[in-house]
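Exercise 7. Given the components listed, write out the predicted structure of the assembled complex. Treat all entries as one system.
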Amino acid sequence: MKKKVSIIGAGNVGASLAQLLVYSGICDVVLFDIVNGVPQGKALDLSEACPLWGSSINITGTNDYKDTAGSDVIVITAGLARKPGMSRDDLLSANAKVVADVAKNTCQLSRDAIFIVVTNPMDVMAQVTLKVTGFNPDMIIGMGGILDSARFRTFVAWELGIAPEDVEALVMGGHGDQMVPMPRFTTAKGISITHLISEDRINKLIERTKNGGAEIVGLLKTGSAFYAPSASTFQMVKSVILDEKRLLPCSAYLNGQYGLKGYYAGVPVILGKKGVEKIIELPLNEQEKSAFEKSFEAVKGLVQNLNTMGG
Ligand code: APR
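Answer.
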């Protein structure tokens, strides 16, 4: 039987992810949105692309949560996207309400699903999903680190004039302004970039990475990035439903790893059919450790703000 992936939110990120899943043919897809007609229209359009792509999966567009029942993976992309001048954190209370509603409605119908949370501020939204579902924390994972790392990989590849796929990068911490790109763990075919690029230039690439989402919001003016976010989410969905055990930077619930506890933050994880199967602990130096802890504290602060607001 084919695996079933439900995408909640048929906007830019959700629909682009649906396209990647349908094209790859690895699972059936349910596209849900509160707006009537949009998920149905996009699903029909994608179904009509199947003969061209040689894909035989089923795609359903719906406004009824019942159609998501028995999903193996639920991806949450519902909510507001950023506009120019907004940080991801500005979306906090509006998106928390949406995500809580989505989590409540979906978890009752898919008791074994792995949740992948994309809606921003993502680390906080993963915590909201955890609280509402009451699921095991390993079943709820946030998408941010793959995207931030892909941005860093791109800028490093341009700097070195090499193919982007030959660059591996690691960005840890919360998926916000305090994210922590890790040059020591960023390599071009295994060679640390600290041997290849000057410190001054690396710092410029780090700044561009941290500002990567805002740079795109500034250009688009009416929304935020969606091609790289959906491609990043696709890697996570694929690793879960095919039990690939990919080693990917994702937002995971820390329970003592890195000496931190009780909140989500971006760390390297092994991702398989059970969700986060292992969190990899790296030997961070003092500077890296302090930046990571600062980023963790920023996520914690947002969760506490939300709790104060009654979210
Ligand atoms: N239930 C279901 N869908 C909802 C709800 C809800 N309660 N509220 C809003 N939506 C839908 C909207 O109707 C819209 O189709 O969520 C979709 C969001 O799509 P876009 O506005 O295109 O936003 P997108 O670019 O896809 O970003 C979605 O992902 O990357 C993050 O920061 C981004 O938080 C944002 C999210």
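Discussion: The mean pLDDT is 96. The first helix runs from residue 12 to 24.
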